[in-house]
Design a protein that fits this description.
This protein is an alpha/beta fold. The protein has one domain: Ribonuclease Z/Hydroxyacylglutathione hydrolase-like (Metallo-beta-lactamase, Chain A, 4-Layer Sandwich). The strands form two sheets. Strands 1-2-3-4-5-6-7 form a seven-stranded mixed beta sheet, sandwiched between helices. Strands 8-9-10-11-12 form a five-stranded mixed beta sheet. The protein is globular, with a radius of gyration of 17 Å.
Length: 272
């Protein structure tokens, strides 16, 4: 059966990143929650010493409320949120971080490069509500790790989508079995030849690190890339005998990464 080898991204896809009218969430592992609006995901990782939020959707009170409601719905305590970890400095990921700081006094993590990029090159320069509005506590870089309780997030420098974009690998569990999950931080390739070359180098590097860590779980911070909304709906309705749709195996993860390579080649062809 012939299937798509890359996502369909339209103007509506881009518009939907700002649509805060609808959210969905699911506990996709015993210790990992996903919260999404139409196009962008947030993850919450449960540890023995509290919760880590990874990316924060759009800067909207509704998005913040949706994340907190999702945490409560799966029986976790939002008062235990300790860290906010960001993949890159775009407003649809730095998002509602200021509310996490104000309400839960979290530590925040991002590369120094993208901290500056976020401030100096805002995604929506004509809209003050999208400008940088909180400080980064810890500047992280390639080879660093972020530990809370029994969980460690491994940090990899993957520039391309943004100058200081980061990608992460961390363990998740289901029924006492440990899997290794990977989140490619900057989803789409840039629109310049030099940028795409850097993006592809970063992808190769991250795939090498994923192979070393035996990654078998593919995560995305945008729903259009991995049939994300369908996967969340499946996870919400999934019965005990059904497989976890996020576990794709090591070979499956390598195939998943080819999506980003295909998108990059498409950009290069357009530039010729």
């Amino acid at each position: 059966m012939k299937r798509l080898n890359k996502p369909i991204v339209t103007k509506e896809t881009i518009r939907n990143m700002e649509d805060m009218s609808w959210f969905i969430h699911a506990r996709i592992f015993d210790d990992l929650l996903i919260v999404a609006q139409k196009e962008t995901n947030c993850f919450v990782l449960k540890t023995t010493e509290g919760l880590i939020v990874i990316d924060a959707i759009w800067p909207s009170q509704k998005a913040f409320d949706a994340i907190i409601d999702g945490i409560k719905d799966v029986g976790w305590n939002p008062e235990t949120i300790k860290k906010l970890v960001l993949t890159h400095g775009h407003v649809d990921h730095t998002g509602c971080g200021k509310w996490f700081i104000e309400k839960y006094h979290v530590d925040t993590y991002l590369s120094e490069t993208d901290d500056k990029f976020w401030e100096q090159c805002p995604t929506k320069p004509d809209r003050p509500e999208t400008w940088k509005d909180y400080d980064i506590t810890v500047h992280i870089k390639d080879g660093d790790s972020i530990t809370l309780g029994d969980k460690t997030i491994y940090v990899y420098n993957t520039p391309g989508h943004t100058p200081g974009g980061l990608s992460y690998i961390f363990p998740v569990t289901e029924n006492n079995k440990v899997y290794m999950a990977a989140l490619w931080g900057g989803t789409t390739p840039p629109r310049t030849g030099r940028g795409v070359v850097q993006y592809l180098k970063s992808l190769d590097y991250f795939m090498e690190k994923a192979a070393d860590k035996k990654v078998d779980v593919a995560l995305s911070n945008h729903t259009s890339v991995d049939n994300g909304l369908e996967r969340i709906r499946y996870s919400k309705a999934r019965m005990s005998y059904m497989p976890n749709i996020y576990v794709v195996g090591q070979e499956g993860f390598r195939k998943y990464c080819q999506v980003f390579r295909t998108m990059s080649y498409d950009v290069l062809e357009e530039l010729l």
